[in-house]
């Protein structure tokens, strides 16, 4: 008798009427049960394979860790395309300060969400979610591998876990909110605007970054659309964390293990996200960041030139998403000072450089703190040979075991690993390579006098 044509073939045995009937029947039943379980398991595995989630690689890390280069080389190996998860690379003209991939790199490997907006436009995590999900679907449909890379933690969190189910404002409500805040924004009265939104029902508005008018407007839109502040809506990431934590408690473990994360991930997420966080020892990272800041100031077309362009476009530092970006904000403030006094002294330039480097290091520190709490990421040591790291990620992508373990030789510790490292970090001092003496910045100061002085056309 055939029970299932696709998976299980079984039969009813003819049993003798002797005294051994019961024993034979029991043996036959046990054999049948074992065979059925094996065949049912095989069918279950086959069904699971047919429903395997599509894979998406995520490569993140602090600023200056080398994640862009790693993602580029990985895309070449895996026939992939890159989706930028960088809140600054979306802007046209902000190339140097965002370490944007070169035209040659972008021609060799397709990049998404790069150069899609003018600096005067705002960009939000919600818009990134929509754009990145659409790009992911498009890449997969073309038979290629999506490789998401960037260091904007909230962008990546929403992309992986989903966005809160927050209502979208109707055109009438959006217009009403714009009218309420327009004069306050025009007069740069940020504090009064914040108090307006706090009184409307969102006490957390007072913790927004200064002059983040987009988020302030969005908060008021949500209140008017739903009667509740943004914080009232469930965040998918929080649900994921709770499930991981409850699974850990059930297993009497202390920290979420790889098995627990993979188990919850397989149930909850839309794609099979394979996530890596590339970093190096903190002192080495800080040294790399300081040198990178110097490199961004070298030449006539560096970050100062891009900051000049932003100012000439009518934008002010810290006035929107683009001008709040680290590097651009400091450069714009420095150039405004130069315009007001007709030039700059070497001391003022070195003060600006120091502030730029410090802000960049602090940003990297915040990134490390953010991703340290993201259990889905596998931490990799950026100091290891690129080829070794590439081989590991390549093999991980093709691995079917769903139990990825980073070898000790490649693993980057999330915390400071020794007292010596702590001591080195406390005693860290910037050691510039290019700008050491007063005369080293003479070319830049000449450029400032020509382009930002009181008698310049700008």
Description:
- With 458 residues, the protein is α/β, with parallel strands linked by helices.
- It folds into four domains: 1-47, no CATH class; 56-165 and 235-283 and 380-424, 3-Layer(aba) Sandwich (Rossmann fold), CATH 3.40.50.300; 171-232, Histone, subunit A (Orthogonal Bundle), CATH 1.10.20; 284-364 and 428-452, no CATH class.
- It has helices at residues 21-50, 67-78, 103-108, 125-141, 153-161, 171-186, 190-200, 213-226, 236-250, 258-268, 282-297, 303-312, 328-341, 346-372, 386-398, 419-426, 442-452; strands at 55-60, 80-84, 111-112, 145-149, 272-279, 377-381.
- It has a six-stranded parallel β-sheet with strand order 3-2-4-1-5-6, with helices on both faces.
- Mean pLDDT is 84; it is low at 1-50.
- Helix 3 (103-108) links the parallel strand 2 and strand 3.
- The protein has 17 helices and six strands.
- Its cofactor is Mg(2+).
CATH class category of the largest domain:
Alpha Beta
Return the CATH architecture of the largest domain: 3-Layer(aba) Sandwich
Largest beta sheet: strand ordering? 3-2-4-1-5-6
What is the CATH superfamily label of the largest domain? Answer: P-loop containing nucleotide triphosphate hydrolases
Tally of distinct domains: 4
The CATH topology annotation of the largest domain reads as: Rossmann fold
The biggest beta sheet reads: 6 strands, parallel
* Beta-strand content: 5-15%
User: Which residues sit in consecutive blocks of at least 5 with pLDDT less than 50?
Assistant: 1-50
User: Helix count?
Assistant: 17
Topology as a string of helices (H) and strands (E)? HEHEHEHEHHHHHHEHHHHEHHH
Distance between the termini: 90 Å
Rounded Rg: 28 Å
Mean model confidence by pLDDT: 84
- The overall strand count is 6
Basic shape: globular
- Oligomeric state of the chains present here: single chain
- Helicity level: 40-55%
Helix-strand category: alpha/beta
Family: Belongs to the IPP transferase family.
Protein name: tRNA dimethylallyltransferase
InterPro entries: Dimethylallyltransferase (IPR039657), IPT (IPR018022), P-loop_NTPase (IPR027417)
Pfam families: IPPT
């Amino acid at each position: 008798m055939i029970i299932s044509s696709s998976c299980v073939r079984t039969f009813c045995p003819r049993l003798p009427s002797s005294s051994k009937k019961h024993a034979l029947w029991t043996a036959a039943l046990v054999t049948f049960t074992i065979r059925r379980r094996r065949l049912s398991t095989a069918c279950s595995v086959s069904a699971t394979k047919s429903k395997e989630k599509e894979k998406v690689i995520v490569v993140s890390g602090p600023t200056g860790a080398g994640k862009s280069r790693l993602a580029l080389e990985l895309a070449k190996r895996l026939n992939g395309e890159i989706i930028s998860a960088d809140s600054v690379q979306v802007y046209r003209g902000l190339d140097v300060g965002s370490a944007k991939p070169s035209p040659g790199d972008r021609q060799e490997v397709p990049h998404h969400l790069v150069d899609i907006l003018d600096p005067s436009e705002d960009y939000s995590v919600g818009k990134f979610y929509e754009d990145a999900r659409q790009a992911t679907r498009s890449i997969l449909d073309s038979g290629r591998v999506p490789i998401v890379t960037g260091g904007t933690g909230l962008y990546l969190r929403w992309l992986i876990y989903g966005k809160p189910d927050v209502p979208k404002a109707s055109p009438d409500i959006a217009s009403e909110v714009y009218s309420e805040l327009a004069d306050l924004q025009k007069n740069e009265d940020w504090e009064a605007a914040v108090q307006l939104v706090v009184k409307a029902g969102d006490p957390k508005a007072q913790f927004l970054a200064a002059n983040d008018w987009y988020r302030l407007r969005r908060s008021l839109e949500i209140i008017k659309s739903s009667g509740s502040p943004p914080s009232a809506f469930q965040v998918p990431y929080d649900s994921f964390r709770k499930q991981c934590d409850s699974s850990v408690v059930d297993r009497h473990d202390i920290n979420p293990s790889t098995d627990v994360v993979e188990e919850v991930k397989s149930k909850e997420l839309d794609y099979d996200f394979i996530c890596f966080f590339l970093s190096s020892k903190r002192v080495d990272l800080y040294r790399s960041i300081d040198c990178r800041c110097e490199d961004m100031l070298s030449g006539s077309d560096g970050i100062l030139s891009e900051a000049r362009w932003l100012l000439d476009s009518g934008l002010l530092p810290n006035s929107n998403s683009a001008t709040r970006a680290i590097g651009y904000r400091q450069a714009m403030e420095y150039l405004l000072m130069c315009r007001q006094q007709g030039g700059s002294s070497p001391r003022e330039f070195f003060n600006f450089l120091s502030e730029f480097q410090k802000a960049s290091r602090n940003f990297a520190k915040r990134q490390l703190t953010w991703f340290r709490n993201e259990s889905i990421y596998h931490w990799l040591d950026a100091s290891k040979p690129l080829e070794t790291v590439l081989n590991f990620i390549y093999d991980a992508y093709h691995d079917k075991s769903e139990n990825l373990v980073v070898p000790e030789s490649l693993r980057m510790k999330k915390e400071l690993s020794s007292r010596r490292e702590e001591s080195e970090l406390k005693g860290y001092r910037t050691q510039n390579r290019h700008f050491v003496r007063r005369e080293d910045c003479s070319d830049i100061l000449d450029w400032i006098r020509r382009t930002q002085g009181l008698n310049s056309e700008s």
